[in-house]
From TrEMBL:
It comes from Setaria italica. Its EC number is 3.1.3.12. Pathway: Glycan biosynthesis; trehalose biosynthesis. GO terms for biological process: trehalose biosynthetic process. This is Trehalose 6-phosphate phosphatase. The gene is LOC101755613. Keywords: Hydrolase, Stress response. Its cofactor is a divalent metal cation. One of its GO terms (molecular function) is trehalose-phosphatase activity. Removes the phosphate from trehalose 6-phosphate to produce free trehalose. Trehalose accumulation in plant may improve abiotic stress tolerance. It catalyses: alpha,alpha-trehalose 6-phosphate + H2O = alpha,alpha-trehalose + phosphate. It comes from the Eukaryota. Belongs to the trehalose phosphatase family. It is an enzyme of class 3 (hydrolase).
Amino acid sequence: MAKPSVGVSEVGVSAAPAQSACPCPGTLFPYPPPRGAGIAAAVRRKCLQVELGAGTGLLGGAWGVESMRASSPTHAKAAAALAAGVDDERAAWMVRHPSALGKFEQIVAASEGKRIVMFLDYDGTLSPIVDDPDAAFMSETMRMAVRSVAKHFPTAIVSGRCRDKVFEFVKLAELYYAGSHGMDIKGPAKASSRHAKAKAKGVLFQPASEFLPMIEEVHERLAETTRCIPGAKVENNKFCVSVHFRCVDEKMWGEVSEAVKGVLREYPKLRLTLGRMVLEVRPTIKWDKGKALEFLLESLGFADCTNVLPVYIGDDRTDEDAFKVLRRRGQGVGILVSKHPKETSANYSLQEPAEVMEFLLRLVEWKRLSRSRARLMSLQ
Ligand SMILES: [Mg+2]
């Protein structure tokens, strides 16, 4: 199969073939990189690295309704599991993935001499999972917690949602946003005064630009095909399409699966992945939340550094790509948000967004105290 030309879009730079048009932006980040590399080098390298990953999706694989059930436990199922005495299983799981709150001191001790970089998923991590994906609002207290974290650490939101939509929910211009599972990355529109003078603007990386017309077309086809399935909701997330089945009767999940697979058979350059109560259609490029995490670390100048501690918090199967990257690097902290035992590559767990907020606030408080202590020491 021919390799597509994968371009990079920035403000004023349209998508173009990779090798010939890698832009070399100036200072886009409010956090001064500790050394060399920087965004230009990161973009150049990624231009060369993004490749077709045909056949890596779920379409055509041995999956279907059972996979949907496994990744999307319903409240009734979770309650039944508890009633059946699965408490022991949960206790064993918690030993392997202890609470990030319970192990807070251990986590901050690991950051000694390192720069923490925060990566946060949105749905189910900063906001509760709700029936209507358009109503997944985050609380004002959570927004304040994220704002406080971003004052101390570079902070990115990494979501399957369209970048514009997730920004509408979060409303914090000082953050990095990686929408569409990391296929649409943008630096802060507003520089954090604590970290930089430069105002950082612009789209940094869009490795799937050429798929936009195809995604539009598939969005329309999927909306049409699933129109007769009560509760099914199709969402255009710019570089991917989400088919939510949260409000579909479980007896009809098979129909959702068949409808989506039926459409995708005509689009071999797209693949299907499974999230929490959602089927997601994406380009077959080798790009995911893990790649987005690496791209952002590289852009911030932490590509091969040992003095960085990435902390990634997420609740979804798609967040596993990021947890795996941290495992592979032997660097950083992966935290899964889940009330129920799940197979995960995360180190730690938190039960729900309320615990995520508590963790973020404790991190801010710890940082403030550390700074105060350092100031006192310097005066002695
Ligand atoms: Mg999520």
